[in-house]
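This section describes the prediction task in plain terms. A model, or a person checking by hand, is given the sequence of a single protein chain and must write out its three-dimensional structure as a string of tokens. No templates, partner chains or ligands are provided. The sample shown here is typical of the held-out split.
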Amino acid sequence: MKKYILDFTLTENKALHDAYVLLKLTPADGAPLPPMLPGQFVNILVPDSPKTYLRRPISIHNVDMERNELWLLVRKAGEGTKHLAAMPTSSIINMVVPLGNTFSYPAQKHVAPLLVGGGVGVAPLLYWGKELLRQGYAPQFLLGARSKKDLLQLEEFAAIGKVHIATDDGSFGEKGVVTQHSVWNDDFSFIYACGPKPMMVAVASKAKSKQTPCEVSLENTMACGVGACLCCVEKTTQGHVCVCKEGPIFNTEQLTWQI
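The expected answer:
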């Protein structure tokens, strides 16, 4: 897909949690959003942050074509993301968009796909769930967090499909990690996951045991977004590849994880 370097206007900065904000942006020149696919990401130039030398990769959380809005779910992890999270509305933010690849569709529609997310890993699953629903699938979500207060965007996900919850402390949904949830007793056409690597490895193992195809969205450290800096290299069955260019979406059969 064609890549663009565009200025966006920040139209809303909504705090969802102490550590997360939802940013809504629209092209600064009023032009329509360029085509973007679920699973892709943007690379943001953090303005007025002298110590933030490199752009920051952020998953595309949602694309609202009617409002001409791009949504980004940002976790305040380092100086760059903390600076982004503190930006006031009307700020101008420069981004390279869109980058990376997209998810694969399930082969059948009569069995639901399962989208599994943990922490900020839920970000790419909202847009993908909406696209699956638009294409006639009935996606279900399995979302994990430490506690009830750490769950994000539940109403948005519930508007798309059935939502299953796992919390470490049992404060909401079933107690335990996502791979301990009773939903795994059901069959699914395809499994998608994004979150901490140990979680994705465990989900991939579950999918393999059920002989269900599985794709994951990797969160390797990225800098350039175009495969030049080699920060995000991942070992695969086809050799070492750059996640930002060949991914971030990979079928788990391509990966050399021990599952």
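For orientation: The mean pLDDT is 96.
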